[in-house]
Amino acid sequence: MAFVRRKGNSFYLVHNVRRGGKVRQLHLARLGERARITEEVVREVSKKHPFVELNWQALREQMNQQVDLADSNSPAIQKLVSNLRALNLELADLFQPLLRISETPTVARELLVQLRLLQSTLQVKLNQFDRKRGRFSHATLRMQGR
Question: Model-level pTM?
Fold first, then answer.
């Protein structure tokens, strides 16, 4: 059975195997500081370990249950909020550099594509929060009152 294990600041996808009467952990993939099972991870693990059968859906659900948005002291939540603040500051300061790179159409086009992708991702996430108002209604109301 595969599971996600934390070692230090990183997460690993591991699988227990029995060899010679002893259980050994087979490290399938390093997931990084935030345990995410992406399509790339699925491809790499399937290619590297073709005989290991994994329930990817169950592993993803296990990862989704580990992040508790209600725990403001959670390191994962604190890091997420910190990254969002940093991204907001970066985007706020983007105007001047954007003017300089507008002379390079390829870079400008890629920047606009990424900004539109970010916008749609944010809209999806905000809609998800709106649908689950029971849990996040107080945060939504505070934000609307500003």
Answer: 0.52
* Gap between the Cα atoms of 60 and 92, Å rounded: 34
Tell me, yes or no, whether 56 and 80 share the same domain: no
Q: Residue 77 class from Cβ within 10 Å (0-12 exposed, 13-18 middle, 19+ buried)?
A: middle
* Residue 89 and residue 57 share a domain: no
- Directed axis angle between helix 133-144 and helix 105-131, to 10°? 120
DSSP single-letter state for residue 35? -
Could you tell me the residue range of the domain that residue 29 belongs to?
2-66
| H or E element at residue 45 | helix 39-48
Is it the case that residue 72 has pLDDT exceeding 80? no
- The rounded distance, in Å, linking the Cα atoms of 25 and 40 is 22
pLDDT tens-digit profile of 116-142?
999 999 999 888 878 766 555 555 445
